[in-house]
Each structure stands twice: as C-alpha cells, then as structure tokens.
Design brief:
Number of strands: 11
CATH class of the largest domain: Alpha Beta
Subunit structure: Homodimer.
CATH superfamily of the largest domain: Type I PLP-dependent aspartate aminotransferase-like (Major domain)
Number of domains: 2
InterPro entries: Aminotransferase_I/II_large, HisP_aminotrans, HistidinolP_aminotransfase, PyrdxlP-dep_Trfase, PyrdxlP-dep_Trfase_major, PyrdxlP-dep_Trfase_small
Helix content: 25-40%
Pathway: Amino-acid biosynthesis; L-histidine biosynthesis; L-histidine from 5-phospho-alpha-D-ribose 1-diphosphate: step 7/9
CATH architecture of the largest domain: 3-Layer(aba) Sandwich
Number of helices: 13
Protein name: Histidinol-phosphate aminotransferase
CATH topology of the largest domain: Aspartate Aminotransferase, domain 2
Radius of gyration: 21 Å
Mean pLDDT: 94
Distance between the termini: 51 Å
Order of helices and strands: HEHHEHEHEHEHEHEEHHHEHEEH
Pfam families: Aminotran_1_2 (PF00155)
Amino acid sequence: MKPKSHIVNLPVYQPGKPIEDVKRELGLDEVIKLASNENPYGASPKVKEAILAELENISIYPDGGAVELTADLAKTLGVNTNQIIFGCGSDEIIALLARAFFVPGDETIMADQTFSVYKSNADIEGAVSIEVPLVHGTHDLDAMLAKVNERTKMIWVCNPNNPTGTILSEQALTAFLDKVPANVLVVLDEAYCEYVTDPSYPNSIPYLEKYSNVVILRTFSKIYGLASLRIGYGIGQPDVIKLINQVREPFNTTRVAQAAAKAALKDQEYIASCRRANAAGILQLQGEFDRLGLEYFPAHGNFIMVDVRKPAGEIFDALLRKGIIIRAGHSKYPTHIRVTVGSEEQNKAFIHALDQVLEEQKAQV
C-alpha cells in the first residue's frame, strides 16, 4: 500500500500521558495528571444523572443532527439552530474545516506556538501553514495580517492561546477582524473561554452578525468536564455551517454525549463554581512560582505555562517519577512546562514535587 506522499512524515499528535500507563511503568500507587487541562472537579452531578438515564437507549443510534442539543445551545447562545455544528470534540470541527475548505496550495495562517492540530490538519489537506511567532506569548495580529495574500484561505486564532494561556482583548480582536478580507475565514478557537475572568476578553458571539467570515469553536471537554465523551461545537454563518456539515460523517456524536451536554448546559451554577475555583487555583500557583522566582505567562484558561529554567523534558521526567504528569515538548519554549490548574490539594502536591525536583537539579550542577 502506498499512502499519500505528503502525509508520510507527518508527526502523530501526542496526548498527555495516561495515569494508568504511569502507574504501571513506574510502579506508583498515586498519580496526579495535570497535563491535559481537564476539569479536576469533573462534571456536574446533573450530567451523571443524565448519563445513567441515557444508558437505557444505548442500543439506539444517536440523533445524527443533535437536534435537541442544538436547540438548547442555540437558546443559550442567542443564535439560530442553523448556525451550530457538533463534532467529536472541537478537534473534529477543526478537521472538518480543513476538509471543507483547503485544496493543495492554499495558505493558512496561525501563531507559532499554538494548538498543533491546526497545522496537522492543514498538512493532511496539502495546505501551506504560515506560522507567525508569538510576542510575549500572545498572537501578533499585525504580523499575521501582513502574511495575508491571494492564497490565504483561513486564519486560526486560539483565544485563550494553548499552550501559553494568553488572551487577546476585544479591542485588539475587533481591530484585526475589521482588516481581514471577507473571503478569508477566521476561526476563533475558544476552548477555554468559560474560564476567563478578564473583562477585556471579547464576547465573540456578536461578531457573527458583523463578520460573515468568522467561525467560533468551543467544547464541552474543559470546564464542562466531558472530555471522555468527546463533544464540541462550531458556530458560524448558516452557509458556512452547511458546508462543514456536508463533509461531516453521520452519527459523529453519541447519545450519551448529547444527553450529558444538554444536562451540563442547564447547570450554569456548577460552571460558575468551577470558574471561581480555577481562578483561586491560578492565584495559588502563581504565588508559589513567585516564591520560587519562576516567570510565567498570564494565565486565563485552566493552565499555566511557566519557565523552569531547565530543559523541560528533564523536569517532565523528574516530576513523572514523583507521580505528577505535566506537559513539556513545546519547541519554541524549551524550558517551559505547561501545568493544568488542579484542585487545591493537587496544586500543593505538584508544587511540593517541583520544589524537590528543582533542588535535585541544583545538587547536580
């Protein structure tokens, strides 16, 4: 068998290391995973009730159009039902956007460094990725605009940005969108938007009325705590959503995921409590990093990227041996690690392990 020549050397996405693997490989009884930006408090109790009830229908195909969930979400967001598409996580919407719009030779613009799935899907479709360096961990919107030409098909803006956690203000993003040509699609990836407390952060939904070329991506994997159920969504103009739907596989979200998402939407009090706990966790970790004299990017999601002043891979391995899984391997930030904001107890355990690792590193010098 001979595959497409341009995919032979594509890197395979590496998710956060599973807890079960670490326990087995290192013989550990207790492991804390702070690598994949999961909600440490899990999902709402109402979600669990909905899942149990839905198990009665496990032999029945899901609603391929997620009609009830779409109606609930449209009401929550204040948009029309034909402006929403659901996917197997927002990752699938990224893949569907690439499938629907890219032909070989198209160009797509993104930050460097940002969520790697934008580039990998562009590569699969034969599009050329134009990567624009971050400035102080934040998208350089002026430099991204300067890269737009007649071959540009799509621009990706991750806000808050993964992995740095920085945000773009409403003022900056609006000025940017005003200048992007109407034939260039702008994808606003807002996977972590529900965590943001900064008042300068944009409410992007009104952009959909003003800009016909905007698509917004969000997910139930993060603050809603449904990561294992893989359900996310895109919001855009009806004609754009229709095109994405035309390349979507049928039954791409499950009955259980749809039921869980419907229940999660109805418990906004729980979401607010997770937002408050996350904000407290950010302050907790920032205070400890200040004590250790470590610099970090402003955190607006549920993770912090911190400069440990040592090769990140070494710190990752050392923390792993102590039962703490974090994220390393960011090529543009070789001495930075990304750590999910956990519960107060998880954060304490991480800092205790990091203290030990940094002391051990000093002793080796």
